[in-house]
Amino acid sequence: MRILFLDIDQVLTGRRWAERRFLETGGGHGPDDLDPVCCRLLGQSLKATGAVIVVTSTWRLNRSLGHIERVLEDHGATHVNIVGAIGAQRCQNPGGRAKGIVEWRTMVAAALESYAVVDDEPDAIDGSDPARMVRTTHEHGLTQSCASHLVKILRTPIAKAK
Predict the structure, then answer these.
(1) What is the pLDDT of residues 17-67, one digit of tens each?
(2) Which residue range forms the structural domain that includes residue 144?
(3) CATH number for 136
(4) What distance in Å separates the CA atoms of residue 12 and residue 14, rounded to the nearest whole number?
(5) Each residue of 33-45: pLDDT tens digit?
(6) Which helix (H) or strand (E) holds 116?
(7) 132 near 2, Cβ under 8 Å?
(8) Is residue 105 part of a domain?
């Protein structure tokens, strides 16, 4: 099993896209509005690696996993398979995402081949291998460079304890 621990805001959105969207629509963007370029890059990464998604985003607090999956697909992400999310308390507390990621990795350790964390916040990786994080920027979200790095990480097996 390959797992992508996915944040959504500032990963599948970015400031430049939001500004462009504002100009195009004459207003803001909706709560489920994502950058289709970022979503397509996510889908390409999932297709290339066969990874499944565990949602680490605060989106998990007010949307079902099925709804998140549909929104990703509606915005161009393909090969989306959301298998779970970190708990609500983990999403909201400082350091909570990192703890939730460690809990998930521990829970699926026997089947875990590889994992990557994609987030705009550096503390999401605490307790995990920093080489397995792809950090996006508030400016651009997921870029081609980020997506290529994500594929490389997910294709690299984790070291198993003996």
Answers:
(1) 667 666 666 665 555 678 889 999 999 999 999 999 999 988 888 888 999
(2) 2-154
(3) 3.40.50
(4) 7
(5) 788 899 999 999 9
(6) strand 114-119
(7) no
(8) yes
